Amino acid sequence: MAERTGAEAGAEAVTGERKNGDGAGATVVSLGDGWENDGGAGRRPEDEAGRGIVVAFGQTMKTLRVREGLEREEFGRQLGYSASTIASFEQGRRIPTPRTIERADEVLGAGGLLCLWKEQVERAQYPVFFQGMAALEKEAVELVAYDTLVVKGLLQTEEYMRALLAMRRPPLDEETIEQRVTARLARRDIFERRPAPLLSFVLDEAILRRPYGGKSVLRGQLEHLLLIGQRRNVEIQVMPVDREDNAGVNGPFTVVTRKDGKKFVYAEAQGIGSLQTDPEQGVLAAARYGIIRSQALSPRESLELIEGVLGSL
């Protein structure tokens, strides 16, 4: 049996994927708190287990800091954080990035002890059903996505993220909001990775006109789209609202392609996350996305439209 990648193992652990007799992956659906729709009040046991990991890591880091005789202010200064942020790490209220964990291990002379937590802590920052998708993003050679309600998480500014999270009903607590923002910002490493993956996004035009968080937030988001759209490995397209034909009427979805050519399809709506591993569904979703791209404005036309909307604010 071939060794599974971390993403495939993660997808199986999260979704319960099982192989049938001919080795094909079955379509799987994970029900639970939605990534964009989670209310925080209905956390599942798996999500609480993830929080337990973050708290245990924070306690370990605090123990090592005290052993070294460092105050939070001094420790934070060496890591580039305030004392209050260090306190949040130690109390499990914020999740440090992998680079921060590596630096903390070095400063505290932990000899790799903190780094042992790195993968678990990184995984714990996502809702359990999204962990497989988060792992797949790290292995993607191509990621394509069609969105109709909000700007894709990978493309969001921090202000836009906070505006969306503040609108959740029932309301999210501040700790959860901070965790979600940190996790979403960490995923943007995909834009800096080498070799660079191919990234393509089609956004419904209506998204560009919804002033979530106010006009200043929308203005910053549109400016960010223009900057990201100039990257050579990124294409952003807009689906005009006046299109009479749209192959994306079934809603938003993302297709991730791994180096081995296998495609995964992720979709989410109303608290239901679905990660499909059936090869046939991956091929069909990729083909559907190709049709959507052909129906949308070209990348050049799309950036011009975004500039026009920005200029009207």
From TrEMBL:
InterPro entries hit by this protein: Cro/C1-type_HTH (IPR001387), DUF5753 (IPR043917), Lambda_DNA-bd_dom_sf (IPR010982)
Source taxon at top rank: Bacteria
Domain HTH cro/C1-type span(s) in chain numbering: 61-114
Matching SMART domains: HTH_XRE
Segments for region (Disordered): 1-47
CDD domains reported in the protein's UniProt record: HTH_XRE
Protein name: Helix-turn-helix domain-containing protein
